[in-house]
Structure formats: structure tokens, C-alpha cells
Amino acid sequence: MARRSVHILRQLGSCSRLSEPTRYITYMPRPGDGSPRAVTLIPGDGIGPLVTGAVEQVMEAMHAPVYFERFEVRGDMKEVPAEVIESIKKNKVCLKGGLATPMGGGVSSLNMQLRRKLDLYASLVNCFNLPGLPTRHNNVDIVVIRENTEGEYSGLEHEVVPGVVESLKVITKFCSERIARYAFEYAYLNNRKKVTAVHKANIMKLADGLFLESCREVATKYPGIDYNEIIVDNCCMQLVSKPEQFDVMVTPNLYGNLVANTAAGIAGGTGVMPGGNVGAEHAVFEQGASAGNVGNEKILEKKKANPVALLLSSAMMLRHLQFPSFADRLETAVKQVILQGEFRTKDLGGKSTTQEVVDAVIAALE
């Protein structure tokens, strides 16, 4: 069973403070009287409204102390509307369905825009075996923590001459130290035993070398946590052959996307893996792996999208908001439905609709 725990960290001060013994970590603020929290809701494209609607139904059924401020955002928009950004800045938390990113054509990804504008520097995806869901490997419980703001996703591309395009990979010490510290602090707070840095420093000696150097420096501050390193191509081979050896993995941007999706496929599929994007002040929760997945017309027409990943992501959100008892109830209900096996969508080997899964989860809450 996956460890229950997503402690969203708030970093106060710069990475230059790593040498100090004090932990500059606190939790997200919330009203001391337990008042309901406002959450920005972006249903998104394709199956997004279907699965976010599932979350709304379950939250209402369990009387969770949250309410949603809904905004219609489409992946083909040129930019995220200003009122959406303001809402997230005000509420500090957002729940989001998939936003489609057009291929080519110079259209900027709204997913990346959100991460940059809100400085959501850490992507966290928890890939774990769900009891009752058969997979090739057992005892998989991997947390992939990925740097979210630079690397190959910096978006710095230009055509040098016709037929020649240059794309820049940007790695900075500040961002590398920041994500390394997040990974080690997450491991420390969640009783994780090991952090593995994924890299390609044998080829990209300066860029990935800087990332590794930063991870090594941070590792010295956490002597109780084992630290090791693995080249990304060997990492992929080890993931598909012996995934149980990994615990927390910290990666640059592109590698983390590949590693998280691979780990998700091994542990049961992207439809059941929760995740979130976290910054010092804000957090956006969404499907963990393949977060840009908006399904296809057939799934949408039959209303058979899998809501499990977003339901588990919303449990992460509840824990982030310091409502742990509600998060536990929701996780337990979802896992009970998966274990019983009667209500599953097609990607999990069943024939159920989204609503049938939702109804089963609500029944399991009672």
C-alpha cells in the first residue's frame, strides 16, 4: 500500500541557506477554525469535465470542507486567462483536468504557462501498486519528483537558418538545488529511505553535471537518507526489470516526464496515478502521469473515462490543505472499489462508466 502522505512544502528563503541547520519549511496556511477552503477548478478539455465532475460529486457526498471556483480554460487558448491566475494566487490551490497542447504551430502549452507563472517548480507523481489490480511487478511504490520550470521545457527554440532549429536546455544551480532539497525533505518527512538522482552527465557533462553537483551537496545535509545516482537510459531498463528498488527519484524536467510515465505504466497505468505541481505558495493537482491526456472521442461519447487518478489526486489535495481524515476516507474508498473489482473502466480491464465508478466510491464512503 502506498504511503499516505503528500506534505506540500513551502520554501522560505533561497537555496543559499542550505548550509544552515534550521529547516526553512512550513505548511500551507489554512483557517484555524477548519472553515471550508476555496479551490480553483479547471475542468479542461476532452474527458476533463467528466473526471473533475466525478471529484465534485465525491467531495459533496463526503461533505469535504472545500468548495470550487470553476473556470473554463481550453488548451487552444493563447494564454491562461488572468482571472484564472488571480484565482489560484488567491486560493493557493487548484484542481485541474487535462489541457490539450496542440502539436507544433508555435502554440504555447497552457500547462507550462501555469507552472511558470505560479513557479510550480516541483512535479510529484506517486506510482504504486493498488491492491486487487494485477500488474507484472509487486511492491512498487515510487515517488518521482521532477524539476518543472527549466531544462528542455524552457521553450527556448529558434531557427538558425532554414532547416536548422536550435533548442536550448537550461539548467541552473538555483533550480537544481531547490528541487533536490524538495526531494530530500519529502523523503525525510515521509519516512522514505532513499533518493535516486536521474541524469545523463556522462554525455551532458556541464548541464547534467551541475544538476548532479547540486544533488550531492544537498544529500550531505541528510545523512539518514541513502543517496545514489543512475544514468537515465539504465534507469529505464532498471524500472521495467526491477522497479521495487526505487523509492524517491529526483530528475531534471524531461527525464522526469519519461520516468514518471514508465513507472506509472509498470504500477497499473496512468489512469490510477495521482500527482501535483507544487511551488512555494501554490499547488495544482491533476492526474499524475500523462497529465495532458484528454482522452478520445470514443471514451468521451461512452462516458467511460477513468476518474481514479484525479480522485486520488484530490485526496492529495485534501491532505495538502490539512484535512487528513477526509483524504484518508477518500483514498480508502477508492482502494476498496479497486480491490473488489466490480466497477472498473476499460483501461483497468472492466466495462464500467465513469458514473458507475463514482457511485461505487460514494457507496464505499458510507
Verbal overview:
There is one protein chain. The chain has helices at residues 48-61, 82-91, 110-117, 173-189, 207-219, 232-241, 253-267, 297-302, 308-320, 324-340, 354-365, and strands spanning 10-11, 25-26, 37-42, 66-70, 93-96, 122-128, 141-147, 157-161, 164-167, 194-199, 226-231, 248-251, 274-278, 283-287. It has 366 residues and is α/β, with parallel strands linked by helices. The strands form 3 sheets. The chain has a 10-stranded mixed beta sheet with strand order 4-3-5-14-13-6-7-12-10-11, with helices on both faces. Strands 1-2 form a two-stranded antiparallel sheet. It has a two-stranded antiparallel ribbon with strand order 8-9. Helix 1 links the parallel strand 3 (37-42) and strand 4 (66-70). The protein is globular. The protein starts with 9 loop residues before the first strand and ends with a helix. 47% of the residues are buried. Mean pLDDT is 87; it is low at 1-32. It is found in: Mitochondrion.
Quick take:
The protein has 366 residues and is α/β, with parallel strands linked by helices. It has helices at 48-61, 82-91, 110-117, 173-189, 207-219, 232-241, 253-267, 297-302, 308-320, 324-340, 354-365, and strands at 10-11, 25-26, 37-42, 66-70, 93-96, 122-128, 141-147, 157-161, 164-167, 194-199, 226-231, 248-251, 274-278, 283-287.
